[in-house]
């Protein structure tokens, strides 16, 4: 009985070894196939990457060449020449304006001995009064008056009583469109109740030149009628304009 079992055992072991060898062979074949596919895909990806790199390099080279064509040195020089020509064409005007402003500023010097020209066509409606109150018909009250309220006609030209530099152009509820001129040496002239003012801050205005045109009176002077509000200040304090006018 034992003799018969041995051959059977050996035969069974041989079969098992054969199966293992076949299994290993299959694994090796599958691994080799998988590795070959992976290697093939890797080669394809590397080839594609090299192709893309060459394409980018080519496009960069073409772009550089295009820039060289679009922006030649000659065009840059032409632009510079044009800018130079523009500067040369505007420089004389700017120089003339600056010279005029500087010349005008040198003429602005008002003093106690200076004389003011009469700024409007009419007579005094309300006199300057800072030592006692005067009656304002529209307001129906007595109050101090730091300026001359001078009658006139709507649309008449208001000229500068003395040379000055425009320091302010504003809209006031009491005096309407109002222009302030710095006459130098601490003196300032204020022209109110105007319209169509042809001036800007910084402009030089010679004596007798237009400051603006007389407008309709504001609601503060409706009873008094059309008038010019004319105020003179010294270091910010109102002074009597009549003190600087020839009698």
UniProtKB/TrEMBL annotation:
<feature type="transmembrane region" description="Helical">
    <location>
        <begin position="15"/>
        <end position="35"/>
    </location>
</feature>
<keyword id="KW-0812">Transmembrane</keyword>
<dbReference type="InterPro" id="IPR011055">
    <property type="entry name" value="Dup_hybrid_motif"/>
</dbReference>
<dbReference type="Pfam" id="PF01551">
    <property type="entry name" value="Peptidase_M23"/>
</dbReference>
<feature type="domain" description="M23ase beta-sheet core">
    <location>
        <begin position="147"/>
        <end position="241"/>
    </location>
</feature>
<feature type="region of interest" description="Disordered">
    <location>
        <begin position="53"/>
        <end position="103"/>
    </location>
</feature>
<dbReference type="GO" id="GO:0004222">
    <property type="term" value="F:metalloendopeptidase activity"/>
</dbReference>
<protein>
    <submittedName>
        <fullName>Peptidase M23-like protein</fullName>
    </submittedName>
</protein>
<dbReference type="InterPro" id="IPR050570">
    <property type="entry name" value="Cell_wall_metabolism_enzyme"/>
</dbReference>
<dbReference type="InterPro" id="IPR016047">
    <property type="entry name" value="M23ase_b-sheet_dom"/>
</dbReference>
<feature type="compositionally biased region" description="Basic and acidic residues">
    <location>
        <begin position="53"/>
        <end position="62"/>
    </location>
</feature>
<keyword id="KW-0472">Membrane</keyword>
<keyword id="KW-1133">Transmembrane helix</keyword>
């Amino acid at each position: 009985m034992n003799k018969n079992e041995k051959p059977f055992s050996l035969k069974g072991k041989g079969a098992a070894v054969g199966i293992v060898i076949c299994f290993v062979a299959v694994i090796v074949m599958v691994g080799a196939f998988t590795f070959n596919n992976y290697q093939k895909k890797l080669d394809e990806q590397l080839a594609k990457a090299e192709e893309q790199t060459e394409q980018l390099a080519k496009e960069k080279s073409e772009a550089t060449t295009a820039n060289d064509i679009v922006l030649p040195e000659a065009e840059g020089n032409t632009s510079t020449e044009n800018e130079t020509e523009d500067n040369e064409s505007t420089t004389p005007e700017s120089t003339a304006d600056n010279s005029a402003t500087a010349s005008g500023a040198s003429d602005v010097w008002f003093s106690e001995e200076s004389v003011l020209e009469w700024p409007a066509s009419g007579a005094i409606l309300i006199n300057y009064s800072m030592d006692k109150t005067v009656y304002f018909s529209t307001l129906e009250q007595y109050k101090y008056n730091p300026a001359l309220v001078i009658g006139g006609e709507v649309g008449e030209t208001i000229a500068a009583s003395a040379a000055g530099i425009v320091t302010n152009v504003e809209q006031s509820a009491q005096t309407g469109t109002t222009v302030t001129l710095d006459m130098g040496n601490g003196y300032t002239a204020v022209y109110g109740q105007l319209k169509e003012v042809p001036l800007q801050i910084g402009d030089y205005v010679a004596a007798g030149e237009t400051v603006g045109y007389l407008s309709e009176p504001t609601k503060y002077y409706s009873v008094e009628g059309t008038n010019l509000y004319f105020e003179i200040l010294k270091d910010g304090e109102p002074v009597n304009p009549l003190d600087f006018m020839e009698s």
